Amino acid sequence: MSFIEKINPLQLDILKEIGNIGAGNAATALSAILNRKIDMNVPNVRTVSFDEMMEMAGGADHVVASVFLRIEGDASGSMFFILSLPVAEYLIRKMTGDETFLIESAPYTELALSCLLELGNILSGSYLSSLSDFTRLNIHPSVPSLSIDMVGATISYGLLELSQVSDAAIVIDTVLEKDQLFADSIKGHFFLLPDPGFFDIIFSALGVSPND
Question: Which domain CATH number covers 68?
Answer without folding.
Answer: 3.40.1550.10
